[in-house]
Amino acid sequence: MYIDEIKDTLNVKACAVMPQIKKLKDMDIIVQKGSAYELSDIGEVIVEKMLPLTSLLDVFDGNKDYWSKHDRSPIPRHLIRKIDMLGKCTLEEPDLDHLFEFPRHLRDRLYSSKSLTSFYSYFCPDCPSIQASCAEDGAEVNLILDEKVYNRMKNDFEDEYNTCLRNGVSLYIYSGKVRPSSFMVSDNFMLLKLFGKDGEFDHRKIMSFTPSALEWGNELARYYIDRSEKIN
């Protein structure tokens, strides 16, 4: 809609509506194209989900800057439309001494899980040992990697790599250009890390522990598995 249409529809003056439009633009709920305004992808979701709005707002509560300033394109459209399934999310921000380490407070949850699916488009030093340990403990492990990350794990972490092979880890190489930074789905939590809108790396990650979030995370995992080449 153009501003005159918005004014006529709401029966207000421009001075009343423009501050609200600015707020919605700052929150990335609407976008401006020329002199017209339209809903962003997240804005469309909010409009369609007005009745279960509480669940949807839980996703963005305290995290709206993360969602609005990061590249959401790696999340397929059908999962953007169901993003309310994530429920109450928390934003994990590691301290400088543990930037690349797996969160310590989640390690018990991780190692007690019977299934684990992980995606990495960058090399995480903890990744080989995590996958190998979970596989040795009998978990069903799926690991989706960028080709360069896969080659580094294979060449530089030979023991962990061979442990994964011996214990039936399903290894995949993803070659698509559109990708998240990383994600992990276990029996009891889901982590999602996105790149910034300009492609910059960010150590922060979104976490959720709700059953519906795990379902959403497993759908995301299946989406990337279906678009990857299976190695093992």
The count of β-strands is: 10
Please tally the helical runs, counting DSSP H or I stretches of 4 or more residues.
11
Shape descriptor: elongated
Percentage of residues assigned to helices: 40-55%
Largest sheet: 8 strands, mixed
Strand/helix succession: HHEEHHHHEHEHEHHEEEEHE
Q: What value does the average pLDDT take? A: 92
Cα gyration radius (Å): 20 Å
Give a quick precis of the structure.
The chain is α+β, with helices and mostly antiparallel strands.
Verbal overview:
The protein is built from 11 helices and 10 strands. By secondary structure, the chain is α+β, with helices and mostly antiparallel strands. Strand 1 and strand 2 form a beta hairpin. The longest helix has 15 residues, at 211-225. The N and C termini lie far apart (52 Å). The model has no long low-confidence stretch (mean pLDDT 92).
Helix-strand blueprint:
Blueprint: H1 3-10, H2 14-26, E1 30-33, E2 36-39, H3 41-48, H4 53-60, H5 64-69, H6 77-80, E3 89-92, H7 107-111, E4 115-120, H8 127-136, E5 140-146, H9 147-156, H10 158-166, E6 170-174, E7 182-185, E8 190-193, E9 205-208, H11 211-225, E10 229-230
Helix pairs in contact: 8-10, 9-10
